[in-house]
Amino acid sequence: MGGARGAGSARGMAGRAARHPRLRAVLGAMGTMGAAGLIGMLGAGWPGDAAAQAAGADGQDFIYLVRPGDTLIGLAGQFMDTPGGWRELQALNKVADPYHLPPGMRLRIPLARIPVVPGSARVVFVTGTARADGRALQAGMTLAEGARLATEAGATVTIELGDGSRVTVPPASAVEVRRLRAFARTGLTDTVIGIDRGEVDSRVAPRGTGVGRYEIRTPSLVTGVRGTHFRVGTDDGASQGAVLEGRVQASARRGQRAAVAAGYGVSVSAAGVLARPVALLPAPALAPLPSPLLASSATVTWAPVASAAAYRVVVSRDAAQTELLSSQTVGAAEAALQDLPEGTLYLGVSALDARRLGGAGTVAPLVVRLNPAAPFTLAPERGGTAYGEEAALRWAEVTGVAQYEYEVAADADFRQGVVRARADTPSASLPLAPGRWWWRVRSLDAAGQPGPWSEAVAFTQEPSPPQPSFDDDGGDTLHIAWPGAGAAQAYRLQMAADAAFTQIVADVRSDTNDARLPRPASGTYFVRVGRESAAAGPHYSAPQRIEVKQYVRDAQGRPVGAGGRMLDRAD
């Protein structure tokens, strides 16, 4: 009896072959194979077909987009735990003819009836401190279903699923891999990610395979997706989802649902109320970036976007921006980038609205060159003072470089009064007027290509200290004079018994370019003079040696002379 039914079924299928090209091809390939053989062959699936038509999940059902020639029996054999499930598909989808399915039909297949196998997830990128179940994450590690990931401030982690889907977890986020499986006969991913805090950026099925199920769940929002790029986040119970490519089905806790297309976002309040999808803000227009950037830091700017409440700024290793080196949110149309590594990076900037929904970002390559290394500056030191008509620059030698290039400017941005020159040795000097100056230096390789500049050093150039002269008129005081600066200036004059000025005999200040010191006992002394400075102590002239004598004096205290000279008491 069963055999007769099987033969009848086979004859029925053969009779319909004329109307179904796909069945006709199967029958021709199977020859005299019986009905059971036909069902088994259909159940094996058509290479690439199911993957290409996988449209993700909707609630408790997997959605398959019907192609020409598909039948319920074939699809049941391919996806379900038994080929006999085609009857359940017929009832669920209200199909009149199980052998004739309209192409493009969204066929529902219960997820509970689809056999699954364990899926895979691999850590492909980590920066900063990221952990899974308390264990520090490193690239190459695998994750199991149920793993709980957490990123600290400044940290990101990217995991890759078996179908190439990438899940990027930005800083200060906590997520759980709640389901990590794959459909048994097709390999389509069956993944559910939960967000406890922060957000997740997903690029799903980048190879065009489609997905069985890929959902991101927050306390108030569930998003189901087919091959797409979207971002979901949660904060204080409220959730947001932004769709950048493809479509997303959003479901709120209260049962509200919305289909969200690319370029739109949706939000759910902490109370579980789903708002209507809104258009995402346009991508900002970035100001031109230097190429290459000869520094590990930079300030980037862009044109403000109307209605933007903030901006998301990321730097990644890849153009798809799944491997984030940094991620920050700023309020103004500029951001400071720090600790950039050498190489080709990618800068992304997107505008966020008041609900923190972020639109598509502008992504631009950022080439960073950090070699040859910048020398360490030695003199003048930061905030120091150089004296004379020339500035003497010194820096540390860098091994293997061909030359050095240095700049001196009148402003910290090196736009005013810039002097640039090259040197073969780690030192240089150049004429420089008194004033406030900045200088920096960088290395050049054998091809003349520069590395980054050293940090700019501010210094003050002062004239050489005046040289004192001694005029001994024989009086009770010594008259010391020096060249004036041509303007009101305070000076400090010292006299000591030794050239190191450890035995100071006199120390006076003067607002003019001369001063008088009490006459000391006969002997050898040293004098020096320096200009007073509010920023630092005086820079003294080189010590001048003088010989001081005690002269014979008359009753009125005047020096006594003989033979055209004053008489020394030592004579």
Question: Your description of this structure?
Answer:
- The chain has 571 residues and is mainly β.
- The protein folds into five domains: 112 residues, no CATH class; 163 residues, Jelly Rolls (Sandwich); 71 residues, Sandwich (Immunoglobulin-like), CATH 2.60.40.10; 86 residues, Immunoglobulins (Immunoglobulin-like, Sandwich); 80 residues, Immunoglobulin-like, CATH 2.60.40.
- Helices cover 10% and strands 43% of the residues.
- It contains six helices and 45 strands.
- The strands form nine sheets. The protein has an 18-stranded mixed sheet that branches.
- It is rod-shaped, with a radius of gyration of 42 Å.
- The N terminus is likely disordered.
The end-to-end distance, rounded to whole angstroms, is 153 Å
CATH class of the largest domain: Mainly Beta
Extract low-pLDDT stretches: 1-51
Shape: rod-shaped
Mean pLDDT: 86
Helix % is: under 10%
Brief description of this entry?
The N and C termini lie far apart (153 Å).
Distinctive features:
5-stranded mixed β-sheet, 6 helices, 18-stranded mixed β-sheet, 571 residues, mainly beta, Immunoglobulin-like, Jelly Rolls, 5 domains
Give a topology summary.
Blueprint lengths: L1 H16 L3 H10 L4 H9 L5 H5 E5 L2 E5 L6 H8 L6 H8 L12 E5 L5 E3 L2 E7 L2 E3 L2 E2 L5 E2 L4 E4 L4 E6 L4 E4 L4 E10 L5 E15 L9 E5 L3 E5 L3 E7 L2 E8 L1 E6 L4 E5 L2 E5 L9 E2 L18 E4 L8 E7 L7 E7 L3 E4 L5 E10 L9 E7 L8 E3 L4 E4 L2 E6 L7 E7 L9 E5 L3 E5 L3 E10 L12 E6 L6 E3 L5 E5 L9 E6 L7 E7 L3 E5 L4 E9 L7 E2 L3 E5 L12 E2 L2 E2 L5
Parallel strand pairs: 13-14, 29-35
Antiparallel strand pairs: 1-2, 2-3, 4-12, 5-8, 5-10, 6-7, 6-9, 9-12, 10-11, 11-13, 12-13, 13-16, 14-15, 15-18, 16-17, 17-20, 18-19, 20-21, 22-25, 23-24, 23-26, 26-27, 28-30, 30-33, 31-32, 31-34, 34-35, 36-37, 37-40, 38-39, 38-41, 41-42, 41-43, 44-45
